Amino acid sequence: MKRLVLSVSLLALLGACRESSAPPAPEPAPAPAVSPADAAPDATPAQPAGDQVPRAFLCRGNEPFWALDISGGTALLKTPEAEIELLGELKASAGGSFAFRGAPDGSPEDEVSALVAPGQCFDTMADGPAMPFSAQASFADGQVASGCCTVEYGIDLAAAPEAKAGAKPATDWSRLLPELSGAVQRCELDGGVATDVVTAAWPMNRGKAGVRLRDTGGDRFDCFVDLATGAIEDVKPVAADDRLPGEGMPLWIPDRDPLPVLNCGRVERVPASEDGGLLHYPDGCG
User: Fold this and answer.
1) Contact criterion met (CB below 8 Å) for 258 and 232
2) Considering 129, 155, 181, which residue would you say is the last residue of a domain?
3) Is the overall model pTM greater than 0.70, yes or no?
4) Were 96 and a residue from 32, 118, 167, 198 both cysteine, which residue would form a disulfide, CB within 3.0 to 4.6 Å?
C-alpha cells in the first residue's frame, strides 16, 4: 500500500476540518476517562491464574472513530473508510504496559504505534463497565488519538518448553515428528486444505505416511505422502465418526503470525530441526 493512500485516509478521518484559510495545527484527541491503576484498588485488571499473559488487545476510540486490533506481531487498523493490516511487534513494557509498532507491508514510513496501559477506561460515547486498559495511538500523519482496550489472555507461548520427542509415550503420535515432519509440512503447505492444525501423523507401509489435517472450518482430511520423494499421492475427506487412537492429543500448530491465542491446556515448542511449530495438548479445554 502506498504512503499516499494511508496518509490521505488517516488525514481525512483523524484531521479536523476548518473553514479558515489557515487552519491551526492538529491537536491530540482528548484522553478518555481513565483511572490510573494506583488511584483505585480495582483499576488493574484481574490477572488469570497460571501461565497466561495478555496476548491480544482490541482498542477503540471516538471523535473520530478508530480501532486497532493487536495480536502478536500483527494488527488491523480500522477507520470508517479503510482497514489497513500492519506488521510489527507487541512488546511488554514496565508497569504492565504494552507497546505496539507496526506498518503496512512494504511501507515502513507509514508506521502506527500504540501504548496500551493498565487502568480503568470508560468509553466516552457509550454507557457500560470500564475497560481494563487505555490506549494512546500515534499515526503516520502525526495525529494522536486516545481510546480504551479490552484484553484477551492466553498461554505465554514464548515461555513454552521445547518438545522432546524421545520422551513421549507410545500413545503420543508427536513422538514420530522427527521422521514425519517433512510429510507434515508438505501436507500442511501443499495439501490443498486451509489447514488450521494437524491432529495426527503416522507411518505407513511402502515408505509412505499419513497426515490428518483439520481446516479452519473444523473439517478433517487425510493426506498421504511418499516419504522418499515428498510427493502427495492423495488427499481425501474424513468421516465425522472416524477417529484415530490418540488423535488430537496433541495438535500440531504451524509456525505462523499471529499465533493463536490459547487459553487452556499446555503448549510445547517443536524444535526447528523438526520444522518448528507448536504442540498443543488441549487438556481441560472442554
Assistant:
1) no
2) 155
3) no
4) 118
